[in-house]
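ok trying again, last paste got cut off:
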Amino acid sequence: MNNNYNKDLPINLKLNIFITRFILLWESLAKTVIYISLISMFFIFLSIFNFFSILSYWPHIIFLSFFLVGYLIIIINLIRNFNWPSKISCIRRIEIDNNTENRPLSTLFDKPGINVDNVLWKKHYNNMLEVCNTLGVVKLKSIYSNLDPLFFRFPILFLFFIMVYSFNNLVIDRVEAAIFPQENIARMVKNGVFNGWVTPPEYTKKQPVLLVESDEFLSVPFGSVFSGRVFGGSGKSKLIFDDGEEDFIIIDDENSSIESIIENNVEVKIQQNNSILFQKTILSIPDEMPKVDFLEKPHSTIKGILDIDFVLSDDYEVTKLYAKVNLKNPIDTSNIGEINFNIPFNVSDSLQTFGQYYHDLTEHPWAGLPVKIFLIAEDYIEQKGTSEILEIILPKKEFKNLIALSVVNQRKKLALGKEKPFIVGEVVKEILLDSSFQKELVLARDWLQESLVILMKDKEQQFLEINEHKFIIDLLWKTALFIESGQLAIAENELRRAQQDLQDALSQGNEGNEIQEMISNLDEALKKYLDELENPMDIDAPQVSESDNPGDRGGENGAQSNEEREDLEEKLEEIADLAVSGSLDEAQEQLDQMQDMTEAIDREALGEALGEEEGNAQPQAMQQISEMMQEQEALMEDSFEQSLNAAQADQKTPGSGPVNAGKKQEILRKQLEEVMHEIGESDNPIPEELGRAERAMRHAERELQRGRPDRAQNAQGRAIEELKKAAEKMDKIHSGDGPSQMAGNSSNNNSQDERDPLGRVPPGQGNSPGGDIGLPKKQSTTRSKEIVRELYKKAEKSIEGSIERKYVDSLLDWY
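nice, full thing came through this time. structure:
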């Protein structure tokens, strides 16, 4: 046979020969692997059942030697008898397993002595090649039939795996002890070794504490778990808590463990054979009750929404906050027990958490009645802290339309059980006799007629069924809102409900698809509300304003409405992005800001003309507003500096940093409230911008109290912008001239007005009192922040005192 004559051998035949070589190799090694496996299984079996543990040191060594000799004999025998499969043996195996005649595969490796290029020989070669292409794969010979003809291997393997699974936590340790006999020396030690630790409850977010020998007391939270383990020694181990005893649980011959909950101050002792292995005094720190209180008395916003400002604290964390409202003078006929509603809040890293929450109760039958309100905070172990009980008048919606007021009064009588449904229906029938239901209030007429079908179906019925009662109460409220303000009031009510639903979903950590559904609902409600706000004229709704003054809808106020719409829509997009990324806390903060913005929109002021003469209080108020703008600018600069120095200064130290700034912001906000009160007493319209400025100041105050000067800057900037707009509006009304020129829009704004990189004009320049603030839009602000970051990077790379460094520092002075 010539081995060089197979250069044109097909790839499938080459692959078949290659596989056959591996099969032959495995068949020669299989017995050795089986013998080694059996010896190893027997060794593991003896180790698991502690056979080696009962042996002394030298017998242990001898038995290990037997196993080692067995392994060596098997391996030496393998080396002596091992033959690497040759190509010829592979070819013969293929031909034998395929029962071929004339040895076709071997023929391919033959070469004639003469006439190599003979046509007849080539024909014969090709015929043999075709036969070889039909040869199948080599069959693996069974090596178990000779070694194990009765199939004992299956029950043996099954029992072995069951045994290993049963001792899965001990197999490695016991095999290791069997391999290293010197470990058995530990049995000569009389007492065992103790290891222990204390694990605080998960809600405390504290790390486990390792127990070490010392004379110092160990203080741990109430409910912590004491865990201990004793290794080695003889006799039972005991845990002694003061006068009580508890035996350790035996794991195996070497190990025992125990766990116990620490609820009191205890003297811990670990004892074995009357010997003390460990001793320590552990103090249990009780979980304090959470504290909660009102920052100020709950009050009504300009839209009748209940505004609750609160502060809460706990030694670990508050898990739930809710309010309870009860009537000051209970009504016997009413089946309403009390009002309960959850208050979402953002968890703060500081000792105290400040928050503000709006809750709409204008639709509740108790609206306008004296009530008692208090807050309840709850922690992880369901301890409850209660605030002071305050008496307030529950905010209600003021109805100016007499028909709407009549519908609301009948609704309240029905809800409080003061009148039978039939009697209420009789009054509603009389209300429907008004001629306005035939013209402007067609939709309201249909709703009232729908309610009459249920109210007057039974003359003697004292109370409606639950579903019917709720349906009528909701329908009458919707009707009253429509009569009073048309679709705008209904859209406003739906917007508030959508905001509340999203607030609850974010605070409760609902599923992502549920939150997205809430955001979609809020998007629709916001669009409907803003559409109605910009165009309140409805076919079936009364006219919100009959004024032809361009300030009512067009001109400056119209531009303001468009700006508010863009801000609200942009805020909603930001909330959606944060929710998608999983930043629910950030999304909740943005939703709070969105509620601040919507609550600051004074809907009542939209129908008032802005061209009325102002009283004597207006010039003085303008001067006060100008001064407040300058003070707010100074506070915003302080906030900016604090945010830059946050890495070097401890912003949470009481009496420093944002805490003082928060107090200053609060004083400035109260000054603004006094100015608004003075304007209101002078019978002059209060500019809606002042309401928005007050809300922005309140938000800035809250962020400063939380130690977040960087976030307070945005709210302070909004406050300055709104104060400037209010001053310009008041100046327009007082002087009869047009509004003061805005930054960048004035035709008289010459190049001499020096502006900083944020577009601000210093006080004394420009036409605006207190200087032109000109806060940029979000895109400009983002760009400015990027410039600041780049300037700081440039400053770090520049050499101190160099011309480049001085130039960069001069640019940074603007910020």
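cool. The mean pLDDT is 75. The CA atoms of residues 48 and 173 lie 9 Å apart.
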